[in-house]
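Handout, section B. The chain below has 202 residues.
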Amino acid sequence: MSAASVERPAVDRPLIAEANRLMDRLPGYRVEIIGGQILVTPPADGPHARALTKLMRPFITAGLDDGETSVVQAIGLWLPTGAEDFAIPDLAIVEADFDNHLIENNCYDPIVFRLVLEVTSSNFRADLRTKVAAYADAQVPVYVILDRKHQRLHVLTEPKGSDYGNHQVHAPGESVALPESLGAEITLDVAALLEAGRAFSG
């Protein structure tokens, strides 16, 4: 486990109420609150979904979806950065008992997250900047970003304050070994993942 348990203050939730209204009005959109600001992401395109599927495979093949951990998509992570802050990563590796750590609004305590992963979309800056600080503040040990905009894979480890102490950027042609702290040996093929996430014109 990665961080101290998040305490839930007993206050009204006007931003969460507005975020939930937006989700009702915009089916398929992802609505998050980071730094007290509502962030709305359009529905994923086909290449995004294809890349995400390809990213899940090595984690599942290595056994991280059985036993001590689970591989999950789009579950909420309660952030310590504000009274109503939460993020919804594309993919996460969580402790198998994550159901016991529900905070509120379908969001879970960051203590159960071993890894979060984002595949960039049109608002790629949020994944590359805003969420770096948010996930570091939450003490998530590993943050992986498949950056389709710049054709790179980022692996961030060693959260310290609002940043990560170690930020490695990998180009196509590289194979990237993720930290063994995940519970298994995982290697990612950067070129194959970026190719899966590429939009084809036809």
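Note. The chain is about 25% helix and 35% strand. Compare this with the example in section A.
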